[in-house]
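User: Study the chain.
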Amino acid sequence: MRAIENVKTIEIPEDVDIKIDGRIVTVRGEKGELTRDFSHTPISIYLEEKRITTKANWPRKREAALVGTVSSHVRNMITGVTKGFTYKLKIVFSHFPISVKVKERTVVIENFTGERSPRIAKIVGDSKVAVKGEDILINGINVEAVSQTAANIEQATKIKKKDHRVFLDGIYVYERHEGTEE
C-alpha cells in the first residue's frame, strides 16, 4: 500500500535567504550564492516562513526517495553558503618526490613515479585549491564541486597494471568537513 504523502521540512537559519521560483532554488548566505534546478523531479518544493518543505503526493518508491534527496541537496546548499566545505588530501610517495602545482583551473602533478609527462586534474566550479607542503586543501561552497575536484586529483594519480598494495604512491583524501580553512 502506498503512502498518501511523503514530506520533509528544513529549518532555514537566520542569516540565509532562500528564493524558490517554481522548482529552481536559490540560496544566498555570507559566503556566496548557490542556485540549483530541481525541475526534473516530480515533487513540490514550498517556502513557508523560515522553513522549506519538499513533498510528494501518492509517491511511488522513486518519488519518495527523491523527497529525501532534494531536501539533502538544499541542506547542503545552506551549509555551503554559511560554513563552506573543506577536503584535505595527502601526497604520498616512497621514492620519486611528487611535485604538485596549481595552474589556472588545473592541478599539475609532476614526477609521479618518475614519469616525464605531468598528470593533470581539472578544478571544478569555484573550488579553491592550495598546496601546503605534503597537503592539498580544497575549499568551496558547493559540496559537489569540491568533492569532484578532490576525486579528479585522486584519480589522476591512480596506478594501473601494478599491485596497489605495494605501490602506494598517490594523492589521497584523508579528511573532509564543513567549514573552510585557509
About this structure: DSSP finds two helices and 13 strands in the chain.
